[in-house]
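Q: Give me the 3D complex with iron/sulfur cluster.
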Amino acid sequence: MSEPIPGLFTPITLGKRTLRNRIVFLPHATGQGVQGLPSEGHLAYFARRAEGGVGMIIQEATPVHQASLSRPTHVQGYDPRIIAPARKISDAVHKAGAVMLVQISHRGLAALPVFSRMPVWAPSPSRSPHTGEVAHALTVSEIREVVSGFVQTARNFMDGGYDGVEIHATHGHLLNSFLNPRLNWRSDAYGGSVENRMRLLIEVLEALRTLPLGILGIRLGQPAWNTGPEASDAATIIHALEPYVDYISVTGGTQATKHLNMGDMYSPPAYMLELARQVKRVTSRPVIAAGRLNEPLLAASIIENGSVDLVGLARALICDPDWARKVQRQATSEIRHCIACNTCVERAESGGPIGCIYNPRTGREGEIAARPTTTPATAGKRVLVVGGGPAGMQAALRAEELGLRVTLAEADPALGGQLALSASVPGREVFQRIADFLQEALAQSQVEVLLGKRLVPGAPEFSSYDGVIVATGAAPAPLPDSAATAIPRFRAEEILRNPSIAKGKRALVIIDDGMTSGPGAAELLAVRGVEVHVVLAGSDAGGALPITNRRMLMDRLLALPLRWHFHSTLLRVDKSGKATLNVRGAGEVKLDSAFDFVVQTVQRSANSDLIAALDSAGGTKFAAAGDCVAPRNIYNAIREGFDAADRLAAALGQT
Ligand SMILES: Cc1cc2nc3c(=O)[nH]c(=O)nc-3n(C[C@H](O)[C@H](O)[C@H](O)COP(=O)(O)O)c2cc1C
Ligand code: SF4
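A: Here is the predicted complex, encoded as structure tokens.
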């Protein structure tokens, strides 16, 4: 980058605190809570982002009441036992120059009784979109209990040294449902007119204003995407809460429409910016925007052109904690760019802790910092990494960090392995960024890279090294023999690599594995004018993807001119190209069209020969990582590559 980005690095005062810049680490589930308390994981995670230069950190939505719990890793904000661990976090964040807030919330309909052991709470007896259970409509005493919960939680964090709190009033949480007339049909003072529906929110804000908070902020959704407040109410609500708050953070979507809240790679950059702009037009309070704002020039421009006052980033800093510092020192080419794959969402919400598809440290900063690094026993030892896919590239980089002398041998003429295939799926080209990042890091390192170097088990080269990391990946299995299909068949991967290999006007694409190669092949063929019939085992493609991506992938496919056969499997295709399906509920169905070829997905099988050979020969210290252990995703490959280097270094240190 040639130009500095002044706008982003102009301090701003919110309430009683001044932030060093306009960059905010947005609230997001970290999956780090342990037994209801903030953990050492939180401490290391947030301290690392503060050291990376962010202006303000907002810890994730934290329950203010037992009925708000929906995860085993939730911090129980209402419990005074959180004060001591919170103090450690705020001290570390302050020491690194950032302001520390926590988002506090009652999840209402988004709570999960399996964790709260209570019915879900809502303004009226509506149905939970998550469990289907009908909610308990709050009594006025319980409403007071909720207000007290907000106050107790804010007080606990204040006593723990936090600078303030953000009220979560969107994403379908309780305060949001009170605002929403479709979920609030009470006939008392808390329902009906907009003044009544916002009464609880204002009571919470009034009560919080009795505390000496440094900053009191609020997160709101705009009317778009059903996230409330209603379009006609929005300005009234914003004006009513303005006297109480120091900033307004704007987002979209709900817990039930997460694909809008955490828009993935199929969502364009700045996809929610217009929502924030709408709020900015009607308020004098500083506004925080969110949603794929991680390209530095874009982030700077929305501050400089006055669209909003602060740039909110969640995933950009989950992926690269040093985003702010790198932008400030104009080293944007060093940024590990978030690709919006939402692996982090899946990790944090499935029992945590959070992780990132290609930052192997994310979510385990403390644990990794505590691992042994270079020792005199390992320094300078020679390591051979076999395989230049994501696992091998990451393993080589980490091994070098640990003081080892590393050679990386890749059989193909290029590095990247499965990343190239992932990036060849339409709409998922961003995967190339992972390959580019790792390759650039290798280019900057001392790692010796040998391309086109196939090392078979027993090759003499192995004897020149002190240890080996096996990262030989996996290969697509051949198509199984099929007497039932009498027309040409292709693997989805072959179509992704070269869609012109399949000749003909009409294709039958079988999608039955939840992955993206089948959908990708269908799209590539359709845009080339092939009439594509998709045979889908269920009703959705991409079942193995994070839930946010699944919905967006399916929306993308449904917008294409594809012919769908849901809940179907292929039984046979005769010589004339006529296909017979087994359709759930209907049995055998013969399609009218004649097909020219079939595209199928196949399982990948581990290239594990080298592991077996080293294991049985004995004598060589080695560690294995990624698909050669078991074919899985890039997240696993990169984590395991990193960890394999640590394991091997530890083993070499023992000799
Ligand atoms: C793993 C994860 C968990 C999230 N949890 C919360 C949350 O607790 N509260 C909230 O208001 N938003 C939450 N969000 C939404 C983010 O704050 C943010 O609005 C969204 O990710 C879009 O911004 P980004 O593109 O910078 O990631 C979460 C996002 C992620 C990725
Ligand atoms: S896991 Fe994916 S979406 Fe999440 S931070 Fe990393 S790159 Fe971004």
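A quick observation: Residues 26-29, 60-61, 103, 168, 171, 219, 251, 261-262, 290-292, 313-316, 344-345, 348, 354 surround flavin mononucleotide (ligand 1) (CB under 6 Å).
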